[in-house]
């Protein structure tokens, strides 16, 4: 069976390819990417695959049996792009689609949720067997802010005391690889999150411990946080979104204690302390 991986040169996609190569022959894997030349180091076949060019997608999917649809990174364009891919998959007779969605996509207040939920509905009405991986936050979403926090002397956000059940990107990649290479997965929806939840105050405390610097967590009003993000160069729309996602954290949108992810991959998820350590290297 041939498995296609969309977005295979992205941060999650590259990890998925490596995990799949540990479970199946590389000849069974096909990278579906915007720029095939960037996939040369993956060691698998690469095909041009642009989510925004529907007329070429079906041809690129020929001969592929299973498809891992890694959600696009263009917020606001995802529903259209994903629909393009699902329609192409129908034409190419894809036998199974595995989709990376969002934790609690059907109830989450996060602005990301509607596009994911719309994609889930498209999948369910497509007639193609599917599996939905509702991924929680990557711990790296927050550890990427560590350099800025060290420079400013504080970690800032708008998450209050909200608990974050994040996991390392590698944990979610492994889950995708396990699902794609095991029986009885079709029709399932997984809510995936890290084993151990933490608050942003806990994260700041851990950064302080590992660096030997006093880095407090300063909780800000949503608009104030968005304004600071904008002032350091983020586009206004993205700054507003990031601040609003933190508010979602305060409402419990990223808390999950089911440990479904660790059961799926067969070992505990990566502690956030380890991801902090890796970010500081």
UniProtKB/TrEMBL annotation:
Spans traversing the lipid bilayer: none
InterPro entries assigned to the protein according to its UniProt record, in alphabetical order: NAD(P)-bd_dom (IPR016040), NAD(P)-bd_dom_sf (IPR036291), NmrA-type_oxidoreductase (IPR052718)
SUPFAM superfamilies (UniProt xref): NAD(P)-binding Rossmann-fold domains
Pfam families per the UniProt record, alphabetical: NAD_binding_10
Coiled coil: none
Ranges where the NAD(P)-binding domain occurs: 7-181
Name of the protein in question: NAD(P)H dehydrogenase (Quinone)
Organism of derivation: Albibacterium bauzanense
């Amino acid at each position: 069976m041939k498995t296609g991986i969309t977005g295979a040169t992205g941060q999650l996609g590259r990890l998925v390819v490596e995990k799949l190569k540990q479970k199946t022959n590389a000849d069974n894997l096909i990278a579906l990417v915007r720029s095939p030349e960037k996939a040369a180091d993956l060691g698998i076949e690469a095909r041009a695959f642009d989510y925004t060019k529907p007329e070429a997608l079906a041809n690129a999917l020929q001969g592929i049996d299973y498809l891992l649809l890694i959600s696009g990174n263009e917020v606001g364009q995802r529903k259209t792009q994903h629909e393009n891919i699902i329609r192409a998959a129908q034409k190419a007779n894809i036998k199974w689609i595995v989709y990376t969605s969002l934790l609690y996509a059907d109830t989450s207040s996060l602005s990301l949720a509607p596009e994911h939920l719309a994609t889930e509905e498209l999948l369910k009405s497509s007639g193609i067997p599917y599996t939905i991986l509702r991924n929680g936050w990557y711990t790296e979403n927050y550890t990427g802010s560590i350099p800025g926090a060290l420079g400013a002397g504080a970690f800032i956000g708008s998450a209050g005391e909200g608990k974050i059940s994040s996991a390392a990107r590698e944990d979610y990649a492994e889950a995708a690889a396990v699902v794609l290479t095991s029986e009885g997965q079709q029709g399932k929806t997984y809510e995936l999150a890290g084993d151990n939840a933490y608050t942003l105050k806990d994260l700041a405390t851990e950064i302080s411990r590992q660096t030997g610097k006093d880095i407090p967590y300063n909780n800000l009003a949503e608009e104030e946080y968005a304004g600071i993000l904008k002032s350091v160069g983020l586009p206004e729309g993205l700054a507003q979104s990031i601040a609003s996602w933190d508010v979602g954290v305060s409402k419990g949108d990223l808390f999950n204690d089911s440990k479904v992810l660790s059961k799926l991959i067969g070992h505990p998820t990566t502690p956030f302390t380890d991801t902090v350590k890796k970010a500081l290297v």
